[in-house]
Amino acid sequence: MLEFCASILAADFARLGQDVGAAEAAGVDVFHIDVMDGHFVPTISFGPLVARALRGVTAKPLDVHLMVEVPQQFVPELAAIGVDRISVHREVPGGPDAALAAIHAAGLKAGLVLNPETPVEAAEPYLPLCDQILLMTVHPGRGGQAYLPGSSEKIAAMRALLQKAGSPAIIQVDGGLNAKTLPEARAAGADSFIMGSAVFGGDIRRNLQQLRQAAGMP
Questions:
Q1: How confident is the model at residue 218 (pLDDT cuts 50, 70, 90)?
Q2: What tens digit of pLDDT does each residue of 65-106 get?
Q3: How far is residue 26's CA from residue 154's CA, in Å, rounded to a whole number?
Q4: What is the separation of C-alpha 74 from the centre of its chain, rounded to a whole number of angstroms?
Q5: What whole-number distance in Å separates Cα of residue 46 and Cα of residue 68?
Q6: How many Cβ atoms from other residues are within 10 Å of residue 213's Cβ?
Q7: Which backbone phi and psi does 20 adopt, to 5 degrees?
């Protein structure tokens, strides 16, 4: 599996519909939405209203990353909007159990997010509840950061853990991904690549062509 997820955090919000349409035409598989509450991370981004607007302009899957202190509170509204996947942090206060249960109860795919400092072993108790594991390859809370050293080794360690556990969960990676770093992350075992400025920064069609070439795709 190889999946390109375009993070709308890097899109031009004055022309969001046009940017999304251009990215979809260029071959983006999924649109990724970062919801930040200003508490779990210091940044405030946007909430379910943006997911609703995005659902109105694309039929592609919507993948929501909740960087919030009480993620389960967002699940019913996001499910009603029609998002497809929701990922929550291992590091949330009280643990992710309630949120993962709520996501599955709503009929959605669930993901577990690990911050750069969190070891892959922290995901092991939750693997039966996870359709995907999102490894942050930057510190969460803002875009435009560089791919952190040691990220590829962590991806490889997560791949080994999933294989040992017999888990079908995919590995997502988010942060600092571009035509230079994507091949390294892919070689380490990542399946799904969340990219913001690498997609929306400049000519979207040309950007996707370069990313496909870097990934070894025709």
A1: low
A2: 999 999 999 999 999 999 999 999 999 999 999 999 999 999
A3: 30
A4: 17
A5: 11
A6: 12
A7: -65, -45
**In this structure, is the dihedral angle defined by the CA atoms of residues 6, 7, 8 and 11, taken in order, positive or negative?**
negative
**175 has a pLDDT exceeding 80:** yes
Is there a contact between 10 and 200 (Cβ–Cβ < 8 Å)?
Answer: yes
Those residues whose C-beta lies under 8 Å from the C-beta of residue 92, and which sit 6 or more positions away, are 40, 68, 69, 70, 71, 99
Instruction: Quickly state the pLDDT bin for 145 (edges 50, 70, 90).
Output: confident
Catalytic residues: 34, 174
Q: How far, in Å, CA of 20 to CA of 200, rounded?
A: 9
Tokens 């009480």 -> residue: 70
Mean pLDDT of 53-75: 95
Residues linked to residue 174 through DSSP beta bridges, in sequence order: 136, 194
Return the percent helix, strand and coil in the chain, to nearest 5: 40, 20, 35
Sequence letter at residue 133: I
Q: What is the predicted pLDDT for the residue at 47? A: 83
Has this prediction a pTM greater than 0.90? yes
The percent of residues in the chain predicted with pLDDT above 70, rounded, is 97
Which of 163, 199, 164 has its CA nearest to residue 178? 199
CB atoms within 10 A of CB 150: 11
User: What is the sign, positive or negative, of the torsion defined by CA atoms of 82, 83, 85, 86?
Assistant: negative
Residue 140 CB burial class (10 angstroms; 0-12, 13-18, ≥19): buried
